[in-house]
Amino acid sequence: MSLDISDLDVSIEGIGILKGINLLIPTGKMAGLIGHNGAGKTTLIRAIMGLLPVSKGTISFKGEDITRQPSHRRANLRISYMPEDRRLIPELSVTENMLMPAWANKIRDGEERLKWVYSLMPEIADFGERKALQLSGGQQKLVALGRALIPGRELILLDEPFEGVAPVLAKRLSSVIADLRGEGLTVLIAESDDTHSADLVDSTWRIERGAVSQSRKGDEP
């Protein structure tokens, strides 16, 4: 398995948020994590990224226990994520925002990786010199996805990638994510519902009140 989460508990300020999470995503597969706002989706993603401490259980990636490893270690393991709120730096250009992970993590082939991202999403290259604050919300989502792909060569976690995006750009995002399948990436897509991800994923996991269960395709939310 690529990502293996076992019996995971996560608390924030002493309040239990995630309880007994078990989740498996095989290498090169896409999975959906579906749950309403407040169900624990972002907490789980942040725990996987090492941004929140784990109270109990383990997170393993490609057979390596990364539960207690510092967050920067995830980049070294080629794990990345696209946060729900994009977190672009408004004053920097699109290209500068895209290259930030390469600079921060000393990724030597960042420029080559950027060219690959631009080949996936040529429209980003078209406004590469524009400031991030000049982009629409949907365009910023594309840039945030591209930025995550710079270090995320093995596993990428997408937190509400379609939220607040116009239908035409949501369709474009779906197309780009679908193209990642051919790149051998393991992908976890967190959404409030599976409107956009149902046709993309190989498996779906439901999260409710901090507990996760796997559902078969065709099951109702």
UniProtKB/TrEMBL annotation:
Question: What keywords is this UniProt entry annotated with?
Answer: Amino-acid transport, ATP-binding, Nucleotide-binding, Transport
What InterPro entries has UniProt attached to this entry? AAA+_ATPase, ABC_transporter-like_ATP-bd, ABC_transporter-like_CS, BCAA_Transport_ATP-bd_LivF, P-loop_NTPase
Q: Does the keyword ATP-binding apply?
A: yes
Q: Which GO terms describe its molecular function?
A: ATP binding; ATP hydrolysis activity; branched-chain amino acid transmembrane transporter activity
Entry's Gene Ontology BP terms: L-amino acid transport
| One Pfam family from the record | ABC_tran
Q: Which residues cross the membrane?
A: none
What the record says about family reads: Belongs to the ABC transporter superfamily.
Which named protein is this? ATP-binding cassette domain-containing protein
Highest classification ranks of the organism: Bacteria, Pseudomonadati, Pseudomonadota, Gammaproteobacteria, Pseudomonadales
